[in-house]
Amino acid sequence: MRRLTKREPARYLGVATACAVLNNVLLIAGDRAGLGYAGLMALLGLVSGTIAYLLHARITFAAPLTRGGYGRFMTGVLLAIPVAFACLAFFKSLLALPMWAAAPAATVAMFVFNYASARVAILRRLLPRRPEAV
C-alpha cells in the first residue's frame, strides 16, 4: 500500500496532464469558434470532469468507481469552475493574453487545487494514512 501512495503523485500528474490537454484543446477550439469561455467552462466541467473522475479513481488512486465518489468529485469540479473562470479571466481579459497562452496559464494555476480536491473526493482524506504501529 505504501508503494501505491509513493507513486500516486506521478500517476496524478499523468492523468492530470491528459485532462489538461483535453481542456486546453477544447477551450482553444471553442474560442476560435467564437464561443464564450463561460459557457465553455461549464460544458468542460461536465465532460472533462466525468472523464477525470473515471481516470483518477482507477489510475491515480486505484479506487472503485462509486456514485458517492463521483458526486464528491463533481462537487469539487463545480466548486473549481468559478476559480478556474477567475484564473482564465485574469489571464485572457485582464492580461489580454490570447487563449492559446491564457488556457495553459490558468491550468497551471489550478493544479494544486484540483489535486487536493480529487484526493479528498475519492479517498476522503487529504494526506496519506500513517502506517500502523506493529
Written account of the structure:
This protein is mainly alpha-helical. It has a domain at 37-126. The protein is built from four helices and no strands. Helix 1 packs antiparallel against helix 2 (37-60) and helix 2 packs across helix 3. The radius of gyration is 16 Å and the shape is elongated.
What's the count of strands?
A: 0
Radius of gyration: 16 Å
In which range does the helix fraction lie?
A: over 70%
End-to-end CA span: 16 Å
Q: What string, H for helix and E for strand, traces the elements in order?
A: HHHH
Principal-axes geometry comes out as: elongated
Class of secondary structure makeup: mainly alpha
| Low-confidence blocks of residues | none
| Fraction of residues in β-strands | under 5%
H/I helix tally: 4
Largest sheet: none
What value does the average pLDDT take?
84
